[in-house]
UniProtKB/TrEMBL annotation:
This is Aminotransferase. One of its GO terms (biological process) is polysaccharide biosynthetic process. Keywords: Aminotransferase, Pyridoxal phosphate, Transferase. Belongs to the DegT/DnrJ/EryC1 family.
Length: 372
């Protein structure tokens, strides 16, 4: 049987063929496609928002940190339960990541642990330069609690919305819940350009700096002059042209992923030892990029994962917390064991917007067999 993937690329065949046709007509290699893609992103977020399209979400975090003046020896607070790309750019700059645990409602940064971390770092003589909070698996973070703390200590928020394009909190779109928002258009994301990312912000000053640094920091002269180190982080026009077409499918793809999520909810509703990641209240609107469950034990999680693997169905444990990663084991961590427990017992299930009915039936059959 063909393999069922966790989140395989979903590219509208019509959009793909339109792009191929454009190669002989409007030239998808034109830089104008980048500007058009950025305009389409801005249209989704509304007036007063600036979008800069880049080659990855990792690049976006790197430039966001630079735009906030993060440098050698500075400290940046980061959610521990996340993909390593949320953290690596901190280390690129010679800064120090300070990891914070999750809370059980959204699996995102715990406000209590966050404030504890800030207070302790201040006692040690270090006010963090930024907070990186993640919208894990498409679920918005606890906006009011985190924002209140960030404002109290005047620390800017970088919102890593790489997994949450189209999600929102109280109808305010993820990416705008922080001071700088991060997007990803990687191959497994809800909208893909084959590879790409972006920065969104309401600050023209930040947007200008991000664009300047992303294009090799070239000064505005008739010749090539560079006074600071820049980067080759711009999205390529071909990827942007695909993005221009694919972004029109955002709402459709979200609806399909939400249907997948409901499909799993319907199955697990009477299995009380299994908990799914769901919106804690009506304030939260998740794109359900990935549907994830927490099982009764590590042993049960592994047994289910291996049963799926035997059936050629891809599943994955939740992200391994950053404070448990060998490369980051010496960095500060604040919190309990919530992220560790989620990692030990959590499993991501196939969630692609292109899952077919027959594929869902195969998944359901394996679940029924396992929980009979």
């Amino acid at each position: 049987m063909d393999r069922i993937y966790l989140s395989s690329p979903h590219i509208d065949p019509l959009a793909y063929h339109q792009q191929v046709l454009m190669i002989g007509e409007d030239n998808p290699l034109s830089v104008e496609n980048i500007f058009l893609f950025e305009k389409k992103i801005q249209d989704i977020y509304g007036l007063g928002v600036y979008a800069t399209a880049l080659n990855s979400g990792t690049s976006a975090i790197h430039l966001a940190l630079l735009a906030l003046g993060v440098g050698v020896g500075d400290e940046v607070i980061c959610q521990s339960l996340t993909f390593i790309a949320s953290v690596n750019p901190i280390v690129y700059l010679g800064a120090i990541p300070v990891f914070v645990d999750s809370e059980l409602d959204t699996w995102n940064m715990c406000p209590i642990a966050l404030e504890k971390a800030i207070k302790d770092r201040m006692i040690k003589g270090k006010l963090p330069k930024a907070i990186i909070v993640v919208d894990l698996y498409g679920m918005p973070f606890k906006y009011y609690e985190i924002r209140k703390i960030a404002n109290k200590y005047a620390i800017p928020i970088i919102e890593d919305s790489a997994e949450a394009f189209g999600s929102s909190y109280e109808k305010k779109k993820c990416g705008l819940l922080g001071d700088i928002g991060i997007l990803s258009f990687n191959i497994n994301k809800i909208i893909t350009t084959g590879g790409g990312g972006g920065v969104i912000t309401k600050s023209k000053k930040i947007a200008n700096k991000v664009l300047f640094l992303a294009t090799q920091a070239r000064e505005n002269t008739i010749y090539y002059q560079h006074e600071v180190i820049g980067y080759n982080y711009r999205i390529n026009p071909l990827a942007a042209s695909l993005g221009c077409l694919e972004i029109n499918n955002l709402n459709k793809y979200i609806e399909l992923r939400k249907r997948n999520h409901q499909y799993y909810l319907d199955f697990f509703k009477d299995i009380f030892t299994v908990k799914m990641l769901v919106e804690p209240s009506e304030c939260f609107y998740s794109n359900h990029w990935l549907s994830a469950v927490v099982l009764e034990s590590y042993e049960q999680r592994e047994a289910l994962r291996l049963a799926f693997e035997k059936a050629n169905i891809e599943t994955r444990p939740l992200w391994k917390p950053m404070h448990l990663q060998p490369i980051f084991k010496s960095y500060p961590y604040y919190g309990a064991r919530i992220s560790e427990d989620l990692f030990e017992r959590g499993l991501c299930l196939p969630s692609g917007s292109n899952l077919t009915e027959s594929e869902k039936e195969r998944i359901l059959s394996e679940l029924q067999l396992f929980f009979r």
